[in-house]
Amino acid sequence: MAKGLDVLREADLRGELSPLRRRILAEVREPASATVVATRIGESRQRVNYHLRELEKAGLVELVETRQRRGGTERVVRATARTVVVAPEVLGDLPTDDQDQFAAETLLATTARTFRDVAAMRDQAGDAGKRLVTFTITADVGFSEPADIARFAEDLAAHVGDLVAAYDTPRARRRYRVIIGGHPAADLTEKPDQNPTRETS
What we know:
The chain has about 200 residues and is an alpha+beta fold. Helix content is about 35%, strand content about 15%.
């Protein structure tokens, strides 16, 4: 069974994940041969077969079965995951001193690092036959005033600090990094406030 999500690192794939390769991946979410895919997307079988081979080398496509067709062997393949995303590369370290906790860059850099690290640990756990235990908490909240965002962040930090103090065992083997961030809920009808904490109510 295909995984729900696969994380692709740029080093895993020779060449970019081009629009054609993305189209081919979409076509083999269910098992199909190069001939079938080529017919669907209007490309030559040879070109599709080449890209399927490269995707297979990258671990994004796997062989399902082989069939004898007109004196030859037809390979039927499928994508190894329903969704593929490219892991963001994080270069350098995000400064921990004097960083702006309300800056979008801080949230993006922290999220990118989390993306990279969790994906790597998940793969390591899978190779060892284990399951990576994580937890995710999401919530939506509406603020009446821009200044409420800063007060909410301060209160949340205080509560998290209390929980850390209550549960933290310095020499524990199972150490977790808890990351909490907030951003405007996606709304195509309104432009998000670019600098809500700098406004005065």
